[in-house]
Amino acid sequence: MRITIKYEASWRNSFLDGSNSEPLPKSGRTFVGSMTTLGKRDNQGNYPNFIKREITHDTVMGVLNRLIGDQRKLYQSRNCPKYFFSDLEEHISFNDQQNQSEPINTETVYIRNMEGNTDQNSFTGMIKANDPVFTSDYSNIFWGVLTLDIESLCHFIVDESFQVNSSKQFDPLIALQTLDELNKLKAIDIETVKNALDTLQKHFPDVPYKIIDGKIKPIELYCSALYLQICRLSQEYDVSHALTKTKNHGLAGISKRGFTPKDFMDRYTTGCKKPIWGNPYQLKERRKGEGEVVSLLTKANGTLDILLNIPADKAEQLKRMIDDAGVSSFYLGKKGLAYVDVIR
Questions:
Q1: How far, in Å, CA of 334 to CA of 15, rounded?
Q2: Region for 187 from its dihedrals, namely left if φ exceeds 0, alpha if ψ lies in -120 to 50, beta otherwise
Q3: pLDDT value at position 121?
């Protein structure tokens, strides 16, 4: 028996982890199609969240169950004592032929994000430029740490008597811009900042500074230096307004190793964090010798032949069940359009 299925625009990527062939987790399958998640590498340097899908035996079995009117998940159907294909699966094969006149194409698709995530680099509401951390007597010498060059920064960290002289006026946007510029600085050899790093590790022994190939990013030193400065200033000024009300009493949006723009601006705006409603499904990566490569969602058009080497009476029964169910069209994989063309 042969069942020929025509399909168009069948999605060949998945933006959910897990599989329909296994029980659904209590919290549901995790959305892995956000820009941040797609760009995460594993230990081998691959991108495991950019998931490619092909037609498999499970896909075919899911289609056959759908054609006879069974809309349960495949694993649920297989666990049923009256599963129609229980003795037939091993006799079922398939041939997927993609249409050469309408080849596989890729396009940018906007994926709706239902996870409630927030934008890493955006904010809502009005900016509170008059926050005490920017208008107090100590504000210039506090934020002035960010204006030091790396050599002066190291002197400041090691020498408690080092005076920061800065006339630059800071507000939330200027502070964020300055942090962003410092974040772009390339990693430096730890030997050039060894004394400063040793001092920071004594002050903050629980902080795991990220050292790779004997180098550290300057942003880690600058952010730690802000904490060092607020600690020194607390001996002379009331700096309680500069700290969060959490048990850690830290700087909003700034850790001792870096900063998060959305958390930083959440403290200094009248609005809330900006929700992410969705994003283009695309993976940008840099490949040696190729430059930036953009991978998009793949759609395929073609024909799927399902071959069933089963007894004639079973074939007749299956055809009758398909006719009775009257399924006109369905998904093949994710999205797209598929329909039965011929049953022989």
A1: 10
A2: beta
A3: 74
**Looking at the structure, do residues 257 and 158 belong to the same domain, yes or no?**
yes
| DSSP one-letter string for 66-92 | HHTT--S-HHHHHTSTT-TTTTTGGGE
Quick check: is 122 in a domain? no
φ and ψ of 8, to 5 deg: -135, 145
Instruction: Note the pLDDT tens digit of each residue in 233-284.
Output: 999 999 888 888 776 778 988 999 999 888 888 888 888 888 878 888 889 8
Is the pTM higher than 0.70?
no
Domain-embedded: residue 213: yes
Beta-strand relationship, 51-52 and 215-216: unpaired
For residues 112-139, give the mean pLDDT: 83
Contact status, residue 92 vs residue 306, Cβ threshold 8 Å: yes
For residue 52, what are the domain limits?
A: 2-113+288-343
Do 271 and 311 fall within a single domain?
no
Answer yes or no: do 159 and 253 share one domain.
yes
Give the CA-trace dihedral at 241, 247, 250, 255, to 10 degrees: -160
pLDDT at 31 over 70: yes
